[in-house]
Each structure stands twice: as C-alpha cells, then as structure tokens.
Amino acid sequence: MNIVVNGEKVEVPGGASVKLLADMQNLPDKGVAVAVNNDMVPRTEWENRLLNEGDDVIIIRAVCGG
Amino acid sequence: MDDKLVIAGKEFSSRLFLGTGKFSSNEVMAKAIEASGTEMVTLAMKRIKLSDSSDDMLQHIAKPNIQLLPNTSGVRNAEEAVFAAKMAREAFGTNWLKLEIHPDPRYLLPDPVETLKATEQLVKDGFVVLPYCQADPVLCKRLAEAGAATVMPLAAPIGTNRGLVTLDFLQAIIEEATVPVVVDAGIGAPSDAAKAFEIGASAVLVNTAISVAANPVEMAVAFKEASVAGRRAYLAGLGAQSADFSAQASSPLTSFLND
Tens of pLDDT along B172-189? Predict the structure, then answer.
C-alpha cells in the first residue's frame, strides 16, 4: 500500500506498523519523532500502531536553529 | 559569586543561552558552545529527507551539562506549536520548549495572540515554556500568569544584530517581572549583552552575533565575559547618572599646587 512520508510517496507492505516503516527508513534510536496524520506516535507505540493506505506520516529530527 | 539562575526549579550557573543556527560547521558550533560556558542551547526541528544521511547536529550539543531547548520555529499558530512541542518532547526527551510563533516572514515578529494561546495549552500539557515574545510589558505579564517559566522579549528582530532597540520596554518588563526575563533576538555585540544584564535581565539568548562572527569561538568567549561583567555590575549597583552634562568632581579641586 502507499503512504506519504514527509511529502514523498512511499510503498509499504499492507498492515505495516510504524516500527516497520522506521526500520525501512533506518531511523536512528533517538533524536527523531514520528506522527501519523498529525498525531504524534511515541516510540513505545511504534510496534502496535498500524498504518493505513494514504496515511500522512511526518518524521522530524534536530537541525540547527536559534 | 553564588548567583544562580533558576528556571522551573533548575539551576544554571551561566546566564548566556546559545542558539545553534548559521554556524559554518557543527564542529565550530560545538567549540563555540563549549567556549561560551553555556548550559542552555536551542535547536530546531525539520522533516527528514528520506535520502539524507548528513551529520546529526544533536550529538554535538547533547551533553550532560547542557539543557536542550527545542524551538517551534516554522509553526504559524498555537495548534501547530502544540503539535511541534509534542514532537520535540518525544524526539529530544525534554519538556523544555522555546515557543516561537512568527508567521510574518519579513520581520519574524512573534504573534502575541497565538503565543499566549499556545503557552496556556502547553503549560497544561506539562511543558516548561519559554516564549519568544514582543517586548510588551502587558503581554509578558499575561504570559507569566499563564504559567510561562520565563519570558523572552526581543531586543530587535531575529538575526539583525541591531542591539537593544526595545531598551525602554525591556526595562519596564524587568521592573515588573515575576519570572526570569531572557532577552532574546537582535543582540549583536557583547556590549548589548552586558547592557541587558546591567538593566537587570536574568539571561540573554545569543545566536547570530556569535555564529556569523569572523571567529565564532572567540566571540563566544567575549559574550561569556560580557555577560558575567554585566550581571556583576547589576548586582554591584550602578552609580546614578547625572541629569545634566556638568562634571561632578571625583578628585579634590582645592589648593594642591598653590598651597
């Protein structure tokens, strides 16, 4: 199925979890946060949170700023 | 000199907060942070580019003696700010937040209505909120009443290095403040930082003036020293300024040569 990650179309297996997506994207162990449809998903819930077709996923990390 | 700054129950020995924008490299940034002696460092958030594997700035600033202060730069209203805050808390493991909502692209001036609204909500959600705000004494009072841990009124627009353009308003804010006042944005030279402390600021947040200096590490030291000097001068109690320009003799003027 297709989802959108940070504005880019990404294909993931049907029923994929946030954890699977994170593994596919090689997300680091810390310093990132994930939201699905503007709802922040804590890392402890990545495994249980399943993605649906068309979900809008945001992944952020730290950048320099004042 | 035992003169700790306390914010939300946490003690700081350094009253100089550093922003991490616009350094030429993460290495220079890390050296400037160390040289400044700061214990509070800001960072921003950005969507990951899926193909991007560039150096993670976080490893350069996440040190045991440093309080991370994620900002909400890029949000346009209170609702987006609350979302950004939750993402920051999750990503960086801190509930401290520099709340900044500045939808206007030209002056990057903070939206007071959205900032107050977001502060109210974020305090309820358990955040330690340090709001970037206009140098408006009434607004600062409202933010403090809403539970802001500090107020962070601007000296001049972000990144301008124009110094304490809002000086008189900052003074009024400081006189009536019930929370620490952090002068943020526009501080361009160590003398600006010293002046902010001399009028009673609790801390200053400096970024561009250090990061774009010809030698950022040396400039970080200069700001450190100016901050200490300004604060010390404030505590020592500055002498009164004369109302007029006539000299007030500091040496005896009587009969030395002619006696």
Answer: 999 999 999 999 999 999
Q: Which entry of B63, B98, B141, B195 is annotated as an active-site residue?
A: B98
Q: Does residue B199 carry a pLDDT above 90?
A: yes
CATH number of A2-61: 3.10.20.30
Q: Is residue B34 part of a domain?
A: yes
- Rounded to 5°, the CA angle B218-B220-B224 comes to 115
Is there a contact between B18 and B220 (Cβ–Cβ < 8 Å)? yes
d(CA B109, CA B102): 5
ipTM over 0.95: no
Residue-level pLDDT at B154:
98
What pLDDT, in 10s, does the model give residues B39-51? 999 999 999 876 6
Q: How far is A66 from chain B (nearest CA, A)?
A: 4
Bridge partners, A39 (sequence order): A36
Is B63 labeled as catalytic in the residue annotation? Answer: no
Nearest to B103 by CA among B138, B135, B73: B73
- Per the prediction, chain B carries an average pLDDT of 94
A6 in contact with chain B, both atoms CB, cutoff 8 A: yes
Which CATH number is B227's domain given? 3.20.20.70
Provide the number of structural domains found in chain B: 1
The domain in which residue B86 lies consists of 13-48+56-236
Q: Does B57 touch chain A (CB under 8 A)?
A: yes
User: What is the Cα B39 distance to its own chain's centre?
Assistant: 12
Higher pLDDT, B127 or A29: B127
Residue B142 resides in a domain: yes
Tokens (6 digits) for B134: 């206009």
